[in-house]
Structures are given as structure tokens and as C-alpha cells.
Amino acid sequence: MATAATSVLPELDAEAFARWRAGGGKVVELMAAARELGPVAGFRLGERKVVLVTGAAQVQQVLAKQPDEYVKRGHRVKPLLGSGLLCAAGEPWRRQRKLLQPQFTGRGIRAYEPQIRAAVAAAAARWREAARSGEVREIDADLRYFSLDVIWRSLTAHPLDPETHRRLAAASEGFAAIPAFAPATGDAAVDFTEANEQVDRVAEHAIALAGEAEEPGLVQVLLRAAAELPDYTERLVRDELMTLVVAGYETTATALNWLFLLLDAHPEQRARALAAGPAGSAERTAAIRALVDETLRLYPVAWLMPRYAAEDGELDGFPIEAGTTVLLSPHLTHRDPQLWPEPEEFRPQRFLDAERRPAPGAYFPFGLGPRACLGAQFAVREMVLLLEELLPAYRVEITEAPAETAYRLTVHPDGPVRARLHTEGE
Q1: What whole-number distance in Å separates Cα of residue 335 and Cα of residue 347?
Q2: Mean pLDDT in each 10-residue stretch from start to end of the chain (426 residues)?
Q3: What is the pTM of this model?
Q4: How crowded is residue 73: how many other Cβ atoms within 10 Å of its Cβ?
Q5: Are 152 and 118 in contact (CB under 8 A)?
């Protein structure tokens, strides 16, 4: 596509870049500085020229309107997840998404709801015992276990067992170490040898369990594809399986972790959600869903989404050369005061006002367009079901929380979150 752009892209100057380096050199701070230049702005990391897109209309253009011009090129987790859906591109991605998409529609998710509810009941039982004993819990670990249990039950129709949990926890350490934006950040490459060994053992176990299961699971969907479609090799089944595990638990666990931290700071929001209606009512479900949506606005797990210009073109009147790195950041767009009144405030009610819906491109915690996260509805549903069970029963008193936020592949509290659980009425 020939460019018709006539404007000069605003870029951070050398002085601003030097100030950033002197201040510690965090990528998120460099991008925050670039955002001040406008909805489309540039900066450099080493020899790499980067275009940052934060305006709602421009985000919509890149992700939803021109996905073939601004494409994914590999993925930072490819050494761990291989050719699974998250890392796939082009025609293989289209075939893989077409196979799995029916499992993540509203109807498809309902088939897995008994497995989700079973994991919710198990999590509630752990908290009930903790509240009775008065022990301080690492609730971030509890929430990771819950989200792994959900996806494991949905994959295999079996509860998460201790050995699988140990292996997945070991593999997730490699996932958590992946930098937000490499290699231009200078971060060393992550060694995935140990993680891949753990992942291979988990995949073998999942396939064995699926053969024993009386209820349907996602692994059976993959195994049927392997029997019927030549593209679905044994290796692709493994990659797809682990993609579902990683993508299926990290978003949920991290978002829930942030949500309980936010509710500790804003207890009135918990009370407000519970007062919206009786248990099981549409009003209470909507209010709890708003808690989730607002948490994902402030702390979208996939906080940085790289794309690459496949050809010369223009964006918002600025020339974009083929091969240019284009970064989109829900974290920055969601905190833009021109798009969100009082953007730093935790105000779930903004998602209950039907007359003030966010503009297209202003809210995209799961991405937008054809490459939006396949499991978004699934993740939100499991979070809402867990909160409908836990919020009325327990008040979570945070006793220790990390002061720093880690901006790596995900955005998460940089350390454990410990809390004491109180039953309602204490």
C-alpha cells in the first residue's frame, strides 16, 4: 500500500531518552513519556525504531481494521509453547483458531461450567479452613492454584493433582522471567530447557488422563483433531495443550490477585457489589463483573502487544515503513485521561453505565480484532463464579503486599501477597 502520509511522526528527543536511562530505564516509563507526544509517537531502543500507538481510534485501526497490515511475528514464548495458537501465524493460525473457537463461545463454555464450579468449591473449602484456623495465606498462590485447577479440569475432566501442580509451577517460572520487550531491552535470553522438560511431562499426563475421562475435555478435542487432520501432529497437540494451560491460568490468576489488592484498598466497592442484589441475581452478577472489568482496565495482564508493519503505509497521517515495530499498550490506553475520566481511580461503576460505554479501541485487555484472546469469555466467567462464592463469605485483609509492580510479559505484583481471611460478621 503506497503511503499518503504527510505528517512527521513526533519522537522522543535525545534529552528525554537520557533522562529515561538515568531514571532506571524501565520500558513502561519510556512508553509513558512517548505517550505524552500524542496518540501515535516514536522512540528508539538501540537501532530499533518503535512506534507507540495509544489512541483509541488508532488502536482500533491497527488491531481490528488492518490486522493484515500490522501482524504478529512470532512470540516471546515460542520456545516454550512452540506452534500453539498464541504463537502461530497465517494460515496455520486460522485453522487452529477455527478448531478451538466453538469451545470458547457462550454455549461451549457452559459445557465446562461444572468443571469450573468444582474448582470454585475446592478453592472455597481451602479458604474456609484458613478462616477457621486464622492462618495467613499467600493468596496469590491460592489464586494461581485455582486458575490452574480450572483449566486442568477443563482439559482432562480431572482435578489438579500435586505432581502436575509442581511441574506447572516450575514451568511457569520460565514464563514469568520473559521480558516485556526483547531483545532491544538488553535482557538476557531465558533458558527454557527445564521448563520444556516439565511441560512435556505434563502434556503426556494430560493425554493419559483424557483417555480415562468419562466427561468431555479440551484434550479430547485436540486428540480428535490429531486423528482426523494431518496438520495436528503429536508435537502440535502438545503445543496447543500447553498454550491453553499458560493462557488459561496466567490471565485469571493475575487479575484476581490485583482485584483483591484493590478491594483491600477500596472495601466500599466490595460492599457496593454485594448490595447490588441478592445472591444469584443478575444485578449482583453484573456488579461483580464490573469489578473484574475495572481491574482489567487498571491492570490488563497482556499490557504490551507488539505488531510489525508488513508493508509501507500510514497511520493517523504518519508514515509507517515496512518492518517497523508497532507497540500497543492497554496499560497506557486504559489510563489515558482523554478516554477515561479519573483514570487512576478504581471505579467499577463506570462499566455499569450503559450510556457511557468506552469508545472502540479504548478498552482491550484481551486484545481486539481477529487475534483477540480466544479465552476471554472463559476467563471472565471463571473469575465471576469464584467471586460470587468468595466475596459474600470472606473479607480479605491484606497483611503483606509488594511495593513494586513487575512489567515483564505480564504485569503483576512483584512478590507474594499475604492475607488473613475473615468470615462475614467477624
Answers
A1: 12
A2: 68 86 82 93 84 97 96 76 85 92 93 96 97 95 95 93 88 67 56 80 89 80 91 90 82 94 98 97 98 97 91 94 94 96 97 89 96 93 98 96 88 94 78
A3: 0.93
A4: 11
A5: no
Distances (CA, A) of 179 to 281, 300, 409: 42, 16, 6
Using alpha carbons only, what angle is made at residue 207 by residues 203 and 210, rounded to the nearest 5 degrees?
135
Enumerate the β-bridge partners of residue 396: 421
b or e along 206-231 (b: 16 or more beta carbons within 10 Å of the residue's beta carbon)?
A: bbebbeeeeeebbbbbbbebbeeeee
What the chain holds in terms of domains, given with CATH numbers, is: 1-67+303-364 (3.30.43.20), 85-298+369-423 (1.10.630.10)
Residue 89, classified by CB atoms within 10 Å of its CB into exposed (0-12), middle (13-18) or buried (19+), is: middle
For residue 243, what are the CA distances in angstroms to 21, 146, 317?
35, 18, 37
Integer distance in angstroms from the first to the last C-alpha of the chain? 65
Q: CA-based diameter of the chain, in Å?
A: 68
